[in-house]
Amino acid sequence: MPKLQYPATFEGGLIGTKITKDILHREVYLYVPYKMIISVQNTQEHEVLKAVIDAHPEVFNEDEYESWEFLILTLRLLYEKTLGKESYWYPYINALPNVQFAA
């Protein structure tokens, strides 16, 4: 990534990415392989989760429920979490903060 610097430190100790040269309009400067994306589409096509989504249109259908996309992605993350270390996504899921909600 010749036009990006990572890691870059910002005010307040924040860490992120910054550009080192101008990026032209429509210039590709970063590629994300498809296998690195959890999406609504690939969750709807998932060999296990497709059946769950199809069986519950009252929850996962855009015509029935406003937050259907959020719920599909939540279903995927929960499924991957149940796989533990067998999940391709284990390192990512394991790095997520453990948030406790008050009852």
Concise structural overview:
With 103 residues, the chain is α+β, with helices and mostly antiparallel strands. The protein is 37% helix and 11% strand.
Q: What is the count of helical runs?
A: 5
Low-confidence stretches: none
Mean pLDDT: 90
| Helix amount | 25-40%
State which percent range the strand residues make up: 5-15%
Tell me about the largest β-sheet.
2 strands, antiparallel
Distance from N terminus to C terminus (CA atoms, Å) equals: 45 Å
Using the alpha-carbon principal axes, give the shape: extended
Main structural class? alpha+beta
Q: Layout of helices and strands, plus pairs?
A:
Layout: E1 4-9, E2 15-19, H1 40-44, H2 49-55, H3 57-60, H4 68-83, H5 90-95
Label this structure with key terms.
two-stranded antiparallel ribbon, single chain, alpha+beta, 103 residues, 5 helices
Structural commentary:
37% of the residues lie in helices and 11% in strands. By secondary structure, it is α+β, with helices and mostly antiparallel strands. The chain has a domain at 32-95. Strands 1-2 form a two-stranded antiparallel ribbon. The termini are far apart. The relative contact order is 0.10.
